[in-house]
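Inputs:
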Amino acid sequence: MTVLEQAGESGETPLLEVRHVKKYFPIRKGVLQREVARVHAVDDVSFAVREGETLGLVGESGCGKSTLGRTIVRLLEPTDGQIIFRGTPIERFGTRRMRPLRREMQMVFQDPYASLNPRKRVGTIVSDPMRIHNLGSRAEQKKRVGEILETVGLSPEHYNRFPHEFSGGQRQRIGIARALALRPKLIVADEPVSALDVSIQSQMLNLLDDLQNELQLTYIFIAHDLGVVRHVSDRIAVMYLGKIVELSPAEELYTRPIMPYTEALLSAVPIPDPDLAEKRERIVLEGDVPSPINPPSGCRFHPRCRYATDICREVEPPLVDYGNAHLAACHHPLNVDQATLQQVGVAEQHTPAAADETALPQDTSGRSNPSATPNPD
Amino acid sequence: MAETLLEVNDLKVRFATEDGIVRAVDGLSFELERGKVLGIVGESGSGKSVTAMTLMGLTRGVNARFDGEVLYKGTDLLKVSDRDMQNYRGNELGMIFQDPMTSLNPVYRIGEQIVEAIQSHEKVDKRTARSRTVELLRQVGIPNPDSRVDNFPHEFSGGMRQRAMIAMALSCNPSILIADEPTTALDVTIQAQIVELINRLKDDFDSAVIFITHDLGVIADIADEIIVMYAGRVVERGSKRDVFYDPQMPYTWGLLGSIPRLDRPRPERLHTIEGAPPSLINLPDGCKFRPRCPHAFEKCKQEPGLENRVGTPGHLDRCWLDVEFKRAHRDETISPGSEEAA
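Outputs:
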């Protein structure tokens, strides 16, 4: 709830608000196709995105970040909760009422090889959205396609080519051009760079940055690599097993991670400097993300968390505001001083046995900050 | 002095295609000792995967031409017959492919696929092969290998499939493990696990590793020597320290500068290498990197040879620029924006 208050504080209506959104997928078995279990892909997620902002959404495969992205643009139906776009709840809109909104929210997909129809020419791929929405005459559409192709760094001569004639990076540019065709306000980019070489990846990140400045776009940027996300995001939400476990202004997440999961994610990002890489403590998370069909009790991260105690196994930690718009859900928050702990009331939740553990994060705060190892010069 | 397992001398691989001759690898040389990790770095299309496949004898075909030598313990693998190559493949050289989703057969159980690999190379009965498979799966860190051995690939996560692939590659105790972008399709957390696993197994199995990647950050931890490839040729080669702390090729600077770094303040813009790698059919004259190089000058119209210009033994590069000039200017590319901070 604190997330929502925080969004309201700024006074203006956020472009997008997500309130307690849940997305469960039923698992059906037998002749009667009875529901035997549910995949809790997204489980009670709330956040708000201001106009012109980039919200990074980070987590491992299977944490529900793509499902959340698809639910926001209504490619998937939310099981429960509200999606509010410019003050209007849209989660129950039918196809017809959604159509004008589709012009305002578009998606860029991860795989540049699979997300373009191989039998269509680039011109058709990029102009299809305009055709569907009856925007302008054919000649105008063609002219606009030329303009967009130039905006994303391709040339208008590419109009009649097929996707297979392009490299991975160029294909991703076509995907971005298609998303831009309708001049959307919000773009949900689902791992737009993870299939690309580092050198091409940096081109794409700069392009997304330029487009945002030029066209006043709002991004929800989904990725698993915190290094990439840091570069584009104003705020970052870390997801684990369908829940947001930490939400923070971008730089603060890197200098002062509160959730141990964030700490582990940060330490997994490779650093291209052998000496630093050797010195730094890598927190290798054991195993994979547990099954979202039967998520662990209490804190969902506890089976892989090195600070976990009894309380983590039993009580699910709430998302608490630690000040400076930095929220986290953890019983043993890192990098938080005692005064703040008392203020937000996390310390009170500890059982006497677990109370000693609150000291632990402070002892380790020096090394629990893998990103803050700058060269002394 | 460790035993030299592999010696590649001036390897050239060309493919005849309808559009012309593709010079996929053009003059590659290196040596690999037991217990060492060689990193090969470059963008898509730089010839690094063709190199790996050629070492495994997987690029043989009517349209392929090979020159040079690939000496494995003294035998030239390029001259070995297809049938004999089968014995080297798996027994002596194991390979891990990039995409664990597509390199396992979806209709066979994980165990069956590894048992098949073992039985095609060694005369052992099914039971022995199976118990060895379980042991291998345990070594690569698959939980409950006794029951997991009978799973199908779709029941494994991406990281576990890659572990199963590694188990398969190790099934016949190869001396050399070739990993072609083994972590690119994986999450960063899983990537860290797999890199650590490969490094540990190298010691357990007393083998050498060739680690191919497009991301220099991935091998900062484990590589001993690094080869940077561009347009089918080696443009820089040296120890890990040489390449990371004293890089001589502007292309290497570009690769280093493209990585969004957590250990530095966030720059306004990331460095990018302008343009795209050249077509291997129509290579530019002179230095192949010249069209994309911000420092190119007159002399670059002649191709520089791969020579030692820095003075550090074993550190070779293909660049005409003055070493002192490079040392003064490379930080603009490698760490844009950090000059103000300094």
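Remarks. The first helix of chain A runs from residue 2 to 9. The radius of gyration of chain A is 22 Å.
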